[in-house]
Amino acid sequence: MLTLEITDTDDFLPIQTVCDFATLVGTYARGFSIIIEPYDERMPHIPDPILQLSCHDASLAIKPVFDRFQSVVITSGTLSPIDLYPRLLSFNPVVSRSFKMSMTRDCICPMVLTRGSDQLPVSTKFDMRSDPGVVRNYGKFLVEMVSIVPDGVVCFFVSYSYMDGIIATWNETGILKEIMQQKLVFIETQDVVETTLALDNYRRACDCGRGAVFFSVARGKVAEGIDFDRHYGRLVVMFGVPFQYTLSKILLARLEYLRDTFQIKEGDFLTFDALRQAAQCVGRVIRSKADYGMMIFADKRYSRHDKRSKLPGWILSHLRDAHLNLSTDMAIHIAREFLRKMAQPYDKAGTMGRKTLLTQEDLEKMAETGVQDMAY
């Protein structure tokens, strides 16, 4: 193409893709797999062959960075558990530190919802997710929450199919109508234009005081890059644990590679990946020290130590033992108390409306030392 001096390269994108594919196949002997799927498993009667080149080794992508730069700093709010990253990226960290969030007040309130108001456990485990009791309890919980939380509420689901199914059920049972009496409802779709329009209208509804609920999907476009700071996100609910689709051929190939190469167990990686995504979702709600918001993990599996311990330290430091095994009624009570506390006057210095009471003795000492005209 260079020899022929072709300027309009857009017409040749397919052949560039083939060349890139062939280059990668020829460059790396390990870390890649070629996966051929003759049809989509959801529609096996329709032939739809796909040839995929899948990269299983993240260290291949970051190696040029390590080679080029003498000092590399990797920092994020979701690097948890921090000891797994050196193994995944094949490097020896010189310094590895996990910091708590330094805040002047307890402006985040994480909770784990394990039961509905009827004491039935809630979870999106495959054998429970279609249970009418679970769907009803999730819906009733959200109805209660939107009636007490001001402004914006963001809900994350584990997949598009689960979100579509649960919203359809809520619509049939009248739960969606109850939610819409309190706030407007907006839904993320796989269409970028539709989602952008829904987000814009969600923000307008929050700005004008009507309040809104935004239904989104973990690993979706909204979860990856949209912030719901200030009044756009006073509550974020993570319905379920966002595990990847475990029957995916690409995921199975990657799990096998990680087990054979880095001795990382399949269960450990899946849990690490799911909890990182959950932290990514709930972290959208807080973006400054003056901000505040509640984070609710609505699944009984979050109460288990092996799952909970993989959340980032800045969330765990605010997650009290008393908030680990809540029913709907208990969560509502805690939410009311938290919102009442956050409604107190707060200045950027972090004094939160505190007043210093001075005794006569203090005033006399200040007069002796020449301290005058102090506003208390």
UniProtKB/TrEMBL annotation:
Alphabetized NCBIfam families for the sequence: rad3 (TIGR00604)
Biological processes, Gene Ontology terms: nucleotide-excision repair; positive regulation of mitotic recombination; transcription by RNA polymerase II
Catalytic activity field: ATP + H2O = ADP + phosphate + H(+)
E.C. designation(s): 5.6.2.3
Superkingdom of the source species: Eukaryota
A GO CC term attached to the entry: nucleus
Gene Ontology molecular functions: 4 iron, 4 sulfur cluster binding; 5'-3' DNA helicase activity; ATP binding; damaged DNA binding; hydrolase activity, acting on acid anhydrides, in phosphorus-containing anhydrides; metal ion binding
Record-given protein name: DNA 5'-3' helicase
Cofactor entry: [4Fe-4S] cluster
Pfam families per UniProt: Helicase_C_2
Domain ATP-dependent helicase C-terminal: from-to ranges: 160-304
Location in or out of the cell: Nucleus
Keyword entries, A-Z: 4Fe-4S, ATP-binding, DNA damage, DNA repair, DNA-binding, Helicase, Hydrolase, Iron, Iron-sulfur, Isomerase, Metal-binding, Nucleotide-binding, Nucleus
Family listed: Belongs to the helicase family. RAD3/XPD subfamily.
